[in-house]
Amino acid sequence: MEKQRQAYTYAIIAVLFWSTVASVFKISLRYVDFLQLLFYSSFVSILILFLILLIQNKLHLLKSYSGKDYLHSALLGFLNPFVYYVVLFKAYSLLRAQEAQPLNYTWQIMLVLLSIPLLKQKIKPLSILAIFISFFGVFVISTQGDVLSFRFTNLGGALLALGSAVIWALFWIYNLRDQRDEVAKLFLNFCFGFVFILIATLLFSKIIIPETLGLLGVIYVGLFEMGVTFVIWLKALKLSQTTAQVSILIYLSPFVSLVFIHLLVGEQILFSTIIGLILIVSGMGLQQYASRFYPPLKSGKILKSS
User: Fold this and answer.
1) Tens digit of pLDDT for each residue in 24-33?
2) How many angstroms separate the CA atoms of 288 and 37, rounded?
């Protein structure tokens, strides 16, 4: 029982950190562009992941991997952090935080759809209903509740946010079959991904020293979106008797995130955002129930809530 209490403590800490990052994304983008945000935050993440590997005495693992393993890390690094965060941060630059965050949160629904061709899963009627409910929630948020008009507040931004969910689901699937240490894998992904990020920043932006608030923002993102929080979450999963006992706390994150968005970013939270988010989370909860029938989709190791 003591271990389970510790698991809940770690899980709550992780959820609180993940709940703040949408606000920090939006605030940071006032001082840096989306590529600069990714450049600096991923660099911070590489440093912190290296320190974690050093503290956990896992640096030797990097020497044990084959050339094929490193190639796999390079491909995954292209997906995440490079493509995923380019798309996500661009979406945040175009949308209100209260819109981008819930749309990105649909990645678990995208996972179900992608598992059909990639994992050869058969979709059940319950999953179809879950997908319909979640995507209706997306429609409510993207139209600010004016669903009959079919007018999106920013169609490009909404598509980018949904695209980021697709990219994360692809990353989840391809990472699922990789049995290497999670932290070591993530470190290598960021190392390879940083090469792509550096090239993109040099070509389409520029490397500058951000203002103080911008610098604090990119450091926070690197620490608590990409680095430390992931390790905290893994600790919670390791201590918990079952994955489900702590994974359910993830569903609190988008609602807590709205509170931070209102307090820190200053956005007036729309009623349509709340209704849409309830629909998205309800659909995902229904899908979580349906996932009992899909063993490959049960893992809670690669959850994401930003």
Assistant:
1) 999 999 999 9
2) 33
